TrEMBL record:
Any one Pfam family match given in the protein's UniProt record, by short name: EAL
CDD domains per record: EAL, GGDEF
Keywords: Membrane, Transmembrane, Transmembrane helix
All residue ranges annotated as the EAL domain in the record: 521-771
Signal peptide segment: none
PAS domain ranges (all copies): 221-274
Protein name as catalogued: EAL domain-containing protein
Keyword match Membrane: yes
PROSITE patterns xrefs: EAL, GGDEF, PAS
Length: 778
């Protein structure tokens, strides 16, 4: 290291003594590779854009923007330099050198900072790999490119690579610290190589008047450089003014695929290229033309950068830098992995990484292209918005890996269902979009939608398990249903909502009245968000009657919304919206608190029944909410009955059953609501001990003419008697229905025959007037 600093001091002394024309030539070498500078700046800008898009981090985004504008500034300064009047005026030369120095150091420093931030502010390994390879590649490339001004090159090297090293040390750990130490050694090694190349370049410039002396010195320097060049990660070779090879390293031979014994000192560039072609490194005339172009550049003294793809598919970047007085330095870099990484990143920017389908951004781009084509001519495009019907149940019960595999299989089926001209995209989660174009007839869209529904309704095999989900499809057709992407997405989503609402496993086209209904629903949702704060909700209670004694065994709390403009709104209209938006959680908490506060005033023999939504059970605070409501009201836990549906158990059986058992241990009773209309009621009765089963009102309607419903009620009543459960029949409206369910052994009844849902004050009057008893028909 002391030797390195001595070299730096010697460089400063040497630079101070350089003739003006030599210094001017060195500054020319800084600005001469204009195309390379533009490529580097644009590449840095693209990397910054990808970083900003992928990371989402504010500081990474700001730093990426700074990289972009710094690169633009460097391009503008290089353009200005190329248009200046040639001069050897020392002050002018020094000013242009300082301009380049500021831009180069700023750009390198920003790249280094971006690498550092990616390590300390991001956990994305792809992002970290991209920035690390960019910074290290930039640092390695500038050592040869700016060797004529070594202090500038070393500054760029340190600013680009040191932050990455510091970031690795900041991460901690033996492996990261080791990488940071190796990077420091790399920096010092590249500094030494830069200084050595600088000596060569200076010698060459100073001795331009005597080519014979320059040739001898180059030969001597080739021997001196040999040890250093062997350790370079880049391949390097140097040609003199006669395009003859005078210096090369082993890495150059490896990257070019050349046998060491075939390469000789003073070999011409054309001979070297012929050996490379004979070794099978290039195939096809196009590659030979690239080789010929390199030869012409050597002889013409024009620098530049070329990407060569070898026969083994390796990508080699060849950078040529002309030397003052004739000759060139060529640097070879294997950028195969970087190119593959860039292609992978570009693909990720356009495709979904799980399914390989086009992503949302690609879908929008394609749709915009299709709409632009429609404006120029005739035709139609159909957008199919697809939502998987029971994906969440699979994801929750079988696990996320199974859910991911299911999404992949769905993508494969969709690709197999559509034409090559159609596009399949994963829009997000379990939603997919198919763009069908060209569309000749509206019926063609209906046929494709039906094929999609049929295809996704067939069972999927996931690790030996048969899974059935199904799908709903909403269709919007352009240009009739919208002239831009957002409008089409909105209308397709509206049609999808209708398809799901009218019965899953179906498709619907967008219709104008749907938009009106959707707007009304959005207005209702906005009002619903304000209803709780405005105290627009109220509770009504409907009695559950003991069919033996006629006494009121319990009262079920039923939510009502008294809208200031629309009056009472049916729960069937607003509860689904509350569940979809998550508003059911705070509303449900309010119901628990208010119902418990009302029920504590009833006779001690009357229980309170409260329905719980599946969405409430997904909220892990539901147990605490129930306990708090009981504690605040003073209602004993034994007087509370929680009514749940099978949908609660479907979402996560083990976690839900654990929560239900915990509540039951407190003395709270559990009732299985809407029994018989779900998927697997008997299995849940086996898993959990319910105190009550409520038979859905649909079995009581037309009971006199429905023998099947009678048989089901009889079977459930018998099962309840064997298991010690109360059997409640909902929807009793006639004396005949009452007598029949009593005869079948049902223990409790609920319906308008006994009482409609009543406001809390009317319930109190009912208890006061009848002592909690309703006269049953004899």
């Amino acid at each position: 290291m002391p030797g390195l600093f001595r070299k730096l001091l010697a460089v400063r002394r040497t630079d101070a003594e350089l003739p003006a024309e030599v210094r001017a030539a060195l500054v020319d070498t800084l600005y001469a590779p204009f195309a390379s500078l533009v490529v580097g700046a644009v590449s840095g800008g693209l990397v910054g854009a990808m970083v900003a898009y992928r990371s989402g981090d504010r500081w990474l985004t700001l730093c990426s923007i700074a990289v972009f504008f710094c690169g633009v500034g460097r391009i503008l300064s290089a353009l200005a330099y190329r248009r200046r009047a040639p001069t050897n005026e020392p002050a002018t030369i020094l000013r242009w050198e300082r301009i380049y120095e500021v831009g180069a150091w700023s750009y390198a420093g920003l790249l280094g900072l971006l690498s550092f931030l990616s390590l300390v502010r991001s956990n994305d390994p792809g992002l970290q790999l991209l920035l690390a390879t960019t910074s290290v590649g930039y640092a390695a490339g500038i050592s040869g490119r700016n060797a004529g001004r070594p202090l500038i090159a070393i500054g760029q090297l340190a600013l680009a690579a040191l932050p990455l090293s510091f970031g690795l040390f900041a991460l901690g750990g033996l492996f990261n610290s080791g990488l940071g130490a190796v990077l420091l050694l790399f920096i010092f090694g590249m500094m030494d190589i830069t200084l050595n190349i600088h000596d060569t370049v200076i010698d060459a410039l100073v001795t331009t008047r005597d080519k014979a002396i320059m040739a001898r010195r180059l030969e001597q320097q080739a021997e001196q450089f040999d040890a250093a060049l062997k350790n370079m990660s880049h391949g390097l070779c140097m040609f003199d003014a006669e395009s003859r090879l005078v210096v090369w390293n082993e890495r150059f031979l490896q990257l070019a695929g050349l046998p060491p014994q075939a390469v000789e000192h003073r070999m011409t560039a054309r001979e070297l290229l012929q050996i490379s072609i004979a070794c099978g490194n290039h195939r096809g005339m196009s590659v030979r033309k690239v080789a010929a172009e390199l030869g012409r550049r050597l002889s013409s003294g024009v620098g530049g950068q070329t990407l060569v793809t070898l026969a083994d598919q390796r990508a080699i970047s060849v950078t040529q830098r002309p030397m003052p007085g004739g000759g060139s330095v060529m640097i070879f870099e294997d950028i195969t992995e970087r190119k593959q990484a860039e292609e992978a990143i570009a693909r990720l920017a356009r495709h979904d990484d799980l399914t390989g389908l086009a992503n949302r951004a690609s879908m929008r781009t394609r749709m915009e292209e299709m709409l632009a084509a429609l404006q120029r001519g005739h035709g139609r495009v159909a957008m199919h918005w697809i939502d998987l019907d029971r994906f969440k149940a699979v994801n929750d019960t079988l696990g996320h890996p199974a859910g991911d595999r299911l999404l992949q299989l769905v993508g494969e089926r969709l690709r197999a269902t559509v034409r090559r001209s159609d596009m399949v995209a994963r829009f997000g989660g379990d939603e997919f979009v198919v763009l069908q174009a060209p569309l000749l007839r509206r019926s063609d869209a209906a046929k494709l939608a039906q094929r999609i529904v049929d295809s996704l309704s067939a069972p999927f095999d996931i690790d030996g398990q048969q899974v059935e989900i199904g799908a709903s499809v909403g269709i919007a057709v352009a240009p009739a249903d919208g002239g831009n992407v957002d409008q089409l997405l909105k209308n397709a989503d509206t049609a999808l909502y209708r398809a799901k609402g009218e019965g899953r496993g179906a498709f619907r086209f967008f219709e104008a009245e749907m938009d009106h209904a959707a707007q009304l629903r959005r207005v209702l949702e906005l009002d619903l968000r304000k209803a709780l704060a405005r105290e627009e909700f109220e509770l009504h209670y409907q009695p559950l009657i003991d069919l033996t004694s006629g006494r009121i065994a319990a009262c079920e709390a039923l939510l009502r919304w008294r809208h200031p403009m629309r009056g009472l709104i049916s729960p069937a209209e607003f509860v689904p919206i509350a569940e979809e938006t998550g508003l059911i959680v705070p509303i449900g908490e309010w119901v628990l608190r208010r119902a418990c506060a009302d029920a504590v005033k009833w006779p001690e023999t009357v229980r309170l029944a409260v329905n719980l939504s599946p969405v409430q059970f997904r909220n892990h605070d539901v147990t605490k909410q129930i306990v708090d409501a009981l504690a605040q009201s003073g209602l004993p836990a034994s007087r509370l009955e929680l009514e749940i549906t099978e949908a609660v158990l479907l979402q996560d059986s083990e976690a839900t059953l654990d929560a239900m058992r915990a509540l039951q241990k407190l003395g709270i009773r559990m009732s299985l609501d809407d029994f018989g209309i779900g998927y697997s009621s008997l299995s849940y009765l086996n898993k959990f001990s319910f105190q009550k089963i409520k038979i859905d009102a649909s079995f009581v309607k037309n009971l006199e003419r429905n023998d099947g419903a009678i048989a089901i009620i009889r079977a459930v009543a018998g099962m309840g008697a064997d298991l010690g459960m109360a059997i409640v029949v909902e929807g009793i409206e006639t004396v005949e229905q009452l007598e029949r369910v009593k005869a079948e052994g049902c223990t409790q009844g609920q319906g308008y025959l006994f009482s409609p849902p009543l406001p809390v004050a009317a319930v109190g009057e009912l208890f006061a007037a009848g002592a909690g008893t309703i006269q049953l028909v004899a």
